[in-house]
Specification:
mainly beta; five-stranded antiparallel sheet; four-stranded antiparallel sheet; 1 helix; 40% strand; globular
């Protein structure tokens, strides 16, 4: 709806353009564009596949708990690298920020550190929002 210029207000279109990755119900990216396939109601990386710009699989979760669900396809964005201190010593991983809405209201912000596909073995990173 955003690309068609429909539904959203001008301010909402500007926000989507600035902060959201292109996401579709089918893989319709220009040739050479890496993208990710994710189950609509999946969690913790299960069923996630990263495709290289060539269309070849670059990385897959290896789990298929949610493989029978419809997928969404999102332009790939490499997660930033970060080093965190754990009880087992330093850990080098990728930082993923997430946010949650409950009944249309913001409810939580979360940071996790893991691999290119954040899974159930990823570390939760303490964080806070001051505002």
């Amino acid at each position: 709806m955003h690309l068609a210029g429909e539904f959203y207000t001008e301010e909402e279109h500007e926000t989507i353009e600035a902060y959201m990755l292109p996401t579709f119900m089918e893989p319709c990216f220009p040739e050479g564009t890496p993208y990710v396939a994710k189950p609509i109601l999946g969690r913790e990386g299960s069923g996630v596949t990263i495709y290289a710009g060539s269309g070849d699989i670059a990385e897959a979760s290896g789990e298929d708990e949610y493989g029978d669900q419809p997928m969404i396809y999102q332009q790939y964005a490499e997660l930033p690298r970060i080093r965190v201190e754990t009880l087992n010593g330093p850990y080098d991983g990728r930082l993923l920020w997430g946010c949650f809405l409950i009944d249309g209201r913001s409810s939580a912000v979360i940071a996790r550190v893991g691999g290119s596909i954040t899974n159930n073995l990823s570390y939760y990173l303490p964080s806070s929002v001051i505002g």
